[in-house]
Amino acid sequence: MGSHEDTKITKKLRVEELEALARKVIDFGFQIHFQLGPGLLENAYEALLESALVQAGHLVRRQVPIQMRFNGIVVDNAFKIDLLVDDALVVELKSMERLAAVHSKQVLTYLRLMELPLGILMNFGQPLFKDGLKRIANDYHGPFGQGETSS
Fold first, then answer.
1. 110 lies in which domain range?
2. 1, 34, 41, 134: most buried, per Cβ within 10 A?
3. Integer Rg of the chain from CA
4. Is the pTM of this model over 0.90?
């Protein structure tokens, strides 16, 4: 990839569309976790979630390398997005016993650099899927209010 402009949203999704997309991604993640449980490597969950979303008709890009520019300095592969769904939703996957605060901050940084409003952080390593799930918003004015949020 070139600069982050290469991966910016090409079509702006309405709030309702973005929220519906996030719910669908979470539902697929839940089904995968329910059927397989914790314990697989992150890349296995990533491949399974990608496949489910593609089968449902979504554009999914996996391990999207992003170039960052800061104060005139270009950093190739500054980060990689695990899954970018419909060029609108960042999905960061983990498979670990417990998330750390830095994982939410990582997703928020991706959103800010990509100028995207919403991301989902999924940790498949938790016994209960809901305990490993976080919704990260970047100054998002959706149905849950505004500003930086994590739920």
1. 14-142
2. 134
3. 15
4. no
